[in-house]
Structure formats: structure tokens, C-alpha cells
Amino acid sequence: MTNAKENLNVQKLVVAVGLVLFVLKLVAWYITSSVAILTDALESTVNVVASFIGLYSLILSAKPRDTEHPYGHGKVEFISAGIEGALIAVAGLVIIYEAINNLRHPHEIGSLDYGILLVAVAAAVNFAVGLTAVKRGEKNNSLALIASGKHLQSDTYSSIGIIAGLVLMRFTGWAWVDSVVALVFAFVIIYTGLKIVRSSIAGIMDEVDETLLRKIVATLNERREENWVDVHNLRIIKYGSVLHLDFHLTVPWYLNVHEAHREIDKIDLLVKEKFGESVEMFVHTDGCLDFSCQICSKQDCPVRKAPFEKRVEWVVGNISSNNKHRLE
To answer: Where are the extended beta strands (E) located within 210-261?
Structure first.
């Protein structure tokens, strides 16, 4: 099964679970009249809308590239995640309004035992599905799926807080706890939403993913071969679940085209072994120059002009620069 199909199947599960839990929380709110449970139900409304947006974006991003979209349709996932993050933040603002209104005009709470039970069941299911979505999204580099999973997890955390508040209210009779709990978790929800919006903007703007870049650099260093004299101008762009990786590879100048391409194939296999099949590589090969001899560890070089002195360790800073490496 391809990554796109896996992502789509998980997102369908997110949609189905979102609909069921939304109904469950509405029932819990109806029997308790708790504003804290209402906030949970309101966030679930956003969950349902956002999950459908995420599903549409994954269907669209799974479409093959065409003449109008030569890099595919994966960027739509960033837009989807941005909308979802914004909806999460709006839900937080609505919760704040409802909580403040309830503090000013408190009302009687009823059937708390059943309400607590229903919210607890919803929280457990949310966490399990959210964890599945995040793990699958991280594995397949799908921001839309990660956003959906984190959305469900944030819903879980707020549900746990709401349950704690309802239990406290159940044993103390303090009605104001209902609104205070809702206020606290409203700010948590807003923070989560803004983080997702920030990530989506970073993806649209092709912001460097430092963590991913460090992993790739570490992989190249660990399996480095003597014909890979130098790697520079390395860049990563995300298009949904697809990673586009391009860089310049310096090889001994006397290698013919086929020999140089075999070195590229080695790197391609190495990267896909580590990061999966959804990686596209575009590599420009350079021939080594005289100053490259000092950093080249090739043992049987027939045209060496200077002895090998020191291997330049590739790090994020020097491998991203558009300059061939040399000793200072």
C-alpha cells in the first residue's frame, strides 16, 4: 500500500470517529447542561469539519502530478492544516465566551456521573485514534494527518481536564469550577491551533526543517563513500508526503557519466532506505578540483595533486552552502 493510500485510510478513520464522538458529547452535554462539556462538544464540531477538510486535502494530494502541477498536489496539505489550526483557535475563543457567560449567569448541573463517563470514553477513543494519525503522519511526512492527529490529542487533553473539573465539582458542589476548567483548556486549545497554523505557513514558505535536515546529513556521514568527495547546496522541499531532495555531489573528475550516476544511485538507495520511498532526488554532479585533494580520502586516485589532510565533516551549515568544501 502506498503512503498516500495509508494516509487516506487513517484520515477516513479520523472522520468516522469524529462524527461518533461528536454525537456522544452532545448527549453528555444534554443530560448535564455543563458548559465544560459544551466546550468539548464545540471542539468536536471543529474536529468534524476539520477532519473532512483533511480528508479532501489527502484525496487531492494523492492525485498524480500533471502538466499544471509538475511537483504534484501535496502542498494542499499545508493549506488544509492551516485551516484546521485556525478552526481550533476559533473553537477556543468560543469556549472562552461561553465560560465567561456561565460565570456571570451560572446554571444548575445535573447527571454528572453519566456525563463524566461519556466524556471519558470519548477521550480514550480520541487519544488512540489521534496517536495513530500522528505516528502515520510522521512516518509518511503528511502534515495534514499530523494536524488531524494533534487535533484529536488536544481534544483528549482538554477532555481529561474537563473530567477532572467535573469530578471536583461532583464532590464539592462548586459550580464555578465548570467555567474555570473550560477557560483553562480554551487557552490550551488556542495555543495548539496557532502552532498548527505556524507549521502550515512554514511548509507553504518552504521553511527549512532543521530536524529532517540533520537526520539526512547524519545518514550521509555514516555511510559516506570515498567517491563522494563533497556534498553541498543541499535543500529539502516538502510536497505533502513527498520529500524533494536536491544537492550537488562532487566526484573524481575522471569518472564517466555512468560511473558518476552509480554514485548517485547509491545515495538514492541510502536515503530511501532511511526515509521511505516517497523521496525524490535531483543531483547535480561536479568534478573535483585541485583543492579537493586535501579533503579527498580516495586511496587509489591516479591523478592526485596533493596529499589527503583532513576529512571535512558534513554539518547542516556547510552542506547547505552553495560552495565546494576546502580546507581553510
So the answer is: 230-239, 242-251
Report pLDDT digits (tens) over 263-279.
999 999 998 888 777 77
Is pTM beyond 0.85? Reply is no
Cβ-proximal residues to 48 (8 Å cutoff; 6+ apart), any chain = 15, 18, 19, 22
- Residue range 195-218, pLDDT digits in tens: 888 878 877 766 667 888 888 899
For strands 279-287 and 230-239, give the pairing: unpaired
Query: Which residue bears the cell 529532517?
Result: 212
Residue finishing a domain among 169, 204, 239: 204
Q: How far apart are CA 307 and CA 297, in angstroms?
A: 9
We report the CATH number of the domain holding residue 312 as 3.30.70.1350
Distance CA 84, CA 128 (A): 20
Question: For 180-201, what is each residue's pLDDT tens digit?
Answer: 877 887 887 788 788 888 878 8
CA–CA separation, 14 vs 126, rounded Å? 9
Cell 532511511 sits at which residue? 274
Same domain, 192 and 127: yes
Give the position of cell 573535483.
288
Residue 325 located in a structural domain: no
